[in-house]
Design goal:
Helix content: under 10%
Number of strands: 11
């Protein structure tokens, strides 16, 4: 079992920055891909990006490429989503997830999920 807890969400103006954290516990993460997903009101949950814990390889959705960066801190067992140049369309609940498949983009590839943190970007 892997327990995931997101934090860092909030209200930010368009063009601003925000950093989300995902603290993991329960298992060593070296075999996992950690992902970020988001769900806007009335929309389906979508892939934002992912990082392979061992080695640090990353993948991003086209909509956030160049604006968002995923990193991890091995010592803290924590993954981060640094978001720059935020847009109103980035408004959503953001979720972190853990799974075995390498840099998977599909929700079904992730076995463990956090409870989510809300990000609101005002225009």
């Amino acid at each position: 079992q892997v327990q995931l807890v997101e934090s860092g969400g909030g209200l930010v103006q368009a063009g601003g920055s925000l950093r989300l954290s995902c603290a993991a516990s329960g298992r060593t993460l070296s075999s996992y891909t950690m992902g970020w997903f988001r769900q806007a009101p009335g929309k389906e949950r979508e892939f934002v990006g992912a990082i392979r814990w061992w080695g640090g390889a990353t993948s991003y959705a086209d909509s956030v490429k160049g604006r968002f960066t995923i990193s991890r801190d091995n010592a803290k067992n924590t993954m981060y989503l640094q978001m720059y140049s935020l847009k109103p369309e980035d408004t959503a609940d953001y979720y972190c997830a853990a799974g075995y498949q390498f840099l998977a983009k599909a929700e079904g590839s992730y076995a463990y999920w956090g409870q989510g943190t809300q990000v609101t970007v005002s225009s």
